[in-house]
Amino acid sequence: MLCKLAWGNVRRASRDYLIYLLTLALGVTVFYAFNTISLQVDIAGIKTAGMREVMSELLSGLTIFLAAVMGILMVYANNFIMKRRKREFGLYQVLGMTRGQVARIMAYETFIVSGAALVLGIICGIALSQLMVFFTASLFKTQISNFHFFISPSALFITIECLVAIFVVALLFNLRVVARVKLVDLMGAERRHESIKTRNPLLSGIVCLVGLALIIWAYCRLLHDGLPLTAPVDQIDFATRRFGITTLMVTAGTVAFFFGLSGLLLKLLQTMRKVYWRGLNMFTVRQLAAKINTISMSMAIIAMILFFAITSVTCGMSIVSAMNASLLRCTPADFSCNVMYNNSEFVDSGEDGEITKYVMPSEPYDVQAALEEQGVDFAKIAKGVQQVDIYSSVPAGEEDPSIMLDDLIRRSKTTLPAGMDEATVMYQGIPVVRLSDYNKYLAFRGFDQLHLADNQYLITCDMGDTLDDMFNSILSAGTTITLGGKTLVPGADKVDPQAGAFCNSAMGLNSGTVVLPDAVVNQMGFALQNSSLLVNYKDGADAQKIDAEFADLASTNGIGTGVGANISQDDGSNIGFWGESINRNEMIEQVDGMNGMISYLCIYIGFVLVIACAAIISIQQLSSVADSSKSVRVLSEVGCDRLAIDHSILLQQAVLFFFPLGVGLAHSLVALRVIISLVLLFGGFDIGGTVGLICVVFLIAYGGYFALTYGMSKCIVRGAVRVRHTE
Fold this sequence. Notes:
single chain; ten-stranded mixed sheet; two-stranded antiparallel ribbon; elongated; cell membrane; ABC3_permease_C; FtsX-like permease family protein; membrane
């Protein structure tokens, strides 16, 4: 009997449960679809080692966190449903039901709605997960070779676990209401509305303006200071503290802004008499002021959550775009490996008493010959091999570099990009390369030769537009370099952005290298800093097999492992150590894997948070419309047009839906300006299309909640208007 009654209640109160059901079903859909990543990775043909396990662990942990957010949201949704049905539950008790029986009815109803949400969400999640295989393949840039329908038991299990937790929390909240609320309060719930505290308009206006001032001040601090990541090492703690203060300022400013907004809004519109007294504007403004008074804190929180959602998606996509752009620019060869040279000479006695002499080499180490001794047959596998030798700018017999970036910036009156204070070129000087070596490198890349006079120099870089623009300003300003009493002038006014990568890397390693005539390098006696060997495989060669052979060589002999395998001369002295080696295919695989992971996490977090914010606002508005239905009925009884009433409701809900979104977007634009300036250090990017598409999807979901809320509000109002006032 109780179960039958609960089923009838759910059918009758379907409108009240609609937002609850929709949000819960969306949560189940997203939870299931994103947790099928392990199967999607396999079907999409992603071969990156460990990617499946890492993505599964990350998304499982993130799902638990987002499920907690969703649980809090469902409790809030229950508040609206219970508010609408308190009199009904009181009537049950008047008719003779015990509180336990009422609680069982509520448990059955919650179970029915949660079960329906689970079934609907799983069905939609299974369908979405099939489509997401293609999205996953696109993110990781792979081809789907064996697509088939799949269902993930593990994703289903974690989704059911999350839903059960949400169900239990919602049920406990409902039972608490029945157990604690008195019968007289239940029966009189329809006649009692949430108390609204009026605030002094002048005081509210001052608070609002103070909040706005705090927000603007925080914006200025952030634009000036940047992120703590860009601070020098010795100032990182101070920068972190300032960033924390800036964060507190924007948070407190947002809360104060919304707290005082209602009074300021009311006062401003009251001064505009022609607008204030037109139609139902007075009613609309007062309703808005009352609602903002009540939910000012939640509006501030929603604005901050939307700020986090927008920033995470846009920042993540900007990083992905920068990495994609850098990948094309910073992989000049099919394979590259590095040798790092000693920058000082000393003698070290080991624990076993063996003495090792560390020296600075006078000639570059022949990397190709060393690899050939290890069994690499370059004649068989390579169509092009080139070694690039980089020198430090410290003259022989001296300790300080002769080419310093800060000196060039100061004399050319150029601005140093944020984040460059601690770059290698700042405290070690700018390294140099011989013109002859650079021209051999250009020939290897298929580029035109560079011609410099004896008194000219040029700068190369592979880290993107920001540093290129800085060096372009230095070159175009005609900034001179004096070496050994000889003054050198720029040989060109621009950096070639495609001819500065001397080894394979993800985001670029050449933050600035000066190309000098050979005679100048010889005269200054610059010490060797590092050498890079670039190898291009023959056309038609089995690149994967060659990559595997190089990997085996590195693991067996320590070549290219990046763990410091020493390089010794015939006399036993140590001249340096092997650096990192990497092939183009491995680099592309790593970058694609990282980009896919970042994109996945950002979209997952952003979508769930946007849905949560939209659902909270929707529930708030439905609750307030139910509270104000009597006022609307009075307006109808005195002759107000129904269209005017609907317009008033639309305007109120549009302000309350999109004003927090506007504030969150403003916060995001300022934060992204700082973040993007940092990302630009590693390469230019274009995120318009990708971010635009994601934002459109988010806005459709957010706007969908707005449209649904407005439609349900009109139904509540029209139902109230049809009921004659009998009091």
